[in-house]
Amino acid sequence: MAQLTKVSPRRRPKTALALLALVVLASSGLGCDSSAEAREGSAGASAPTPDPEPSPNPGRNPDPSPAKVPADATHATSMGSRSSNDAVGSSAGRPATPQALRLTRPPMREPADVARYHATPPVAGSRTALAYQFDAPVFHLPSGARRIAGVVRRNSRLAVDRWVPGEGCGKSWYALVGGGYVCSGDGFSVASDPAPLSEALATEPPAVDQALPYRYAKVDTPAPLYWRVPSESELATGATAPIRERAQGAHFVAMDQRLTVAGEALSRTVRGYYVRDRDLQEKPAPTMHGERLSGRDALPLAFVYVDDAPLLDPDTGTLRGTAERFARFPVAELRERDGQRHAVSPEGFGASLEHVRIASATARPDEVGATDQWIHVDLDQQVLVAYEGDAPVLATLVSSGKEGFEPPLGLFRVHKKYTSVTMSGPDPDAGTYAVEEVPWTMYYWASFALHGAYWHDEFGKVRSHGCTNVPPVDARWLFHWARPELPTGWHAEVGLRGPWVYFTRGADPSASASTTSL
């Protein structure tokens, strides 16, 4: 887990500054995605709200070998050499100078293997359905009700089982291998070997084996977004003919290709537009990631969410060292000294509760079954803990809605899962926001969702406008852990009954840790 380094006080390293700028998603409606309700209004849209399906049976875990958080999860290693002044004792009998502690965040956890999921599965059969619409709809039944079961991303191919009779389709209904129905001419072409899409429409599939499925960037405003590749002369003269629009407000794009025109580097967005690289601020992956857990004794766990948090001797209050942001340690007890509460590690150092967030075990709600998957979000602590029954399996920091945009309290259930989805709406500061391909999104009520956040690294602090931002590597883990899994080749599934999501506030961290006053 964390790495604890002992260094001389004179050689204590400084932590790096935060890597990403603060960018806020805003929304005028319920939740962080005011475009979600609009998407639900048409058959070719991304997210209708069909009737729920029966709850699935408990299943697998996408990361088969979690490491139990040990009591000695901070590791002591040497850093550099001590100077002659860093005495460890002297012939005069002076006491040894204690070495300062340095608690660092652990290396980034590798994305869990999900080989069973394929964004573009191999197809074998007499007929194939090729998606030519950006989000092509798959239906529950071949009927005029046209109740959507999910969507398939453009350029994906699915195996067709057979032709079926039905209503509400201008051409023909086909049953897919593995379930679901498509209407030929409604987002899909069906043939023994459908003609490939043009290069302009051949969307690259998401990199589902990575924490971030696409390359992401913020667009400088008002930079032009081109609907086609501009020519050398059009780039030189600033011609408006190839310009689809100019970026406004807080505008983020997901990109799948690079190209060069007369020395000008451009990127193609997943939605098929082009933007100059010099108008982009690429977003590196956030550095925060949570901890895989095994057993209730892995909690409580403290996550440092500020830079250079002081580490103190809980008995004397003496400074013993510092902790890097996103370092973490098990909590043996909480102690109070001079009116300030501290989380104390098994190694005997403590950190103020003003500098750490505590992930604690929470009792399973009565409605949640003994083997159900459920996710608890403590809004006061800005932490998320995922459970299988009563066993916690993941703990991490989150960023939920700030004052005036808080998510609803109570117990909900995931009903839509999107590998990625674009969110947009009004922003009180920037005017508007448009955030392409928000990864690993799970809606639990209206347009409120848990999802990965690639535009900031400020987890542990409230900052969103409704949704709960999760570090991408953890959001991906949750997405694939959450039952039911996406059908092979699908980009999203709707109308499902996924994990429970439980939002609370007002919990006392001392409920799962012993407390003493000094």
SS element count, helices: 3
Radius of gyration computed on alpha carbons? 26 Å
> Spans with pLDDT under 50 lasting ≥5 residues?
2-29, 41-97
Proportion of residues in β-strands = 35-45%
Shape: globular
DSSP, total strands: 37
Helix content: under 10%
Major pleated sheet: 12 strands, mixed
The span between the termini is: 29 Å
Mean pLDDT: 83
SS content category = mainly beta
Model description:
The radius of gyration is 26 Å and the shape is globular. Helices cover 4% and strands 37% of the residues. The strands form seven sheets. Strands 5, 6, 11, 14, 15, 16, 17, 31, 32, 33, 34 and 35 form a twelve-stranded mixed sheet that branches. It has a six-stranded mixed sheet with strand order 18-29-28-27-36-30, with no helix packed on it. A five-stranded mixed sheet has the order 2-1-3-21-20, with no helix packed on it. A hairpin with a 2-residue loop joins strand 28 (383-388) and strand 29 (391-397). It is mainly β and 518 residues long. The longest helix is centred in the C-terminal third of the chain and has 10 residues, at 472-481.
Quick recap of the structure?
The chain has 518 residues and is mainly beta. It has helices at 36-39, 232-237, 472-481; strands at residues 3-7, 75-78, 100-104, 127-131, 135-139, 148-153, 157-164, 173-176, 181-183, 188-191, 215-219, 224-226, 243-246, 250-261, 264-269, 274-276, 280-282, 291-292, 301-304, 309-312, 319-323, 328-330, 333-337, 340-344, 350-352, 356-359, 373-378, 383-388, 391-397, 410-413, 416-427, 431-445, 448-452, 468-470, 492-494, 500-504, 514-517.
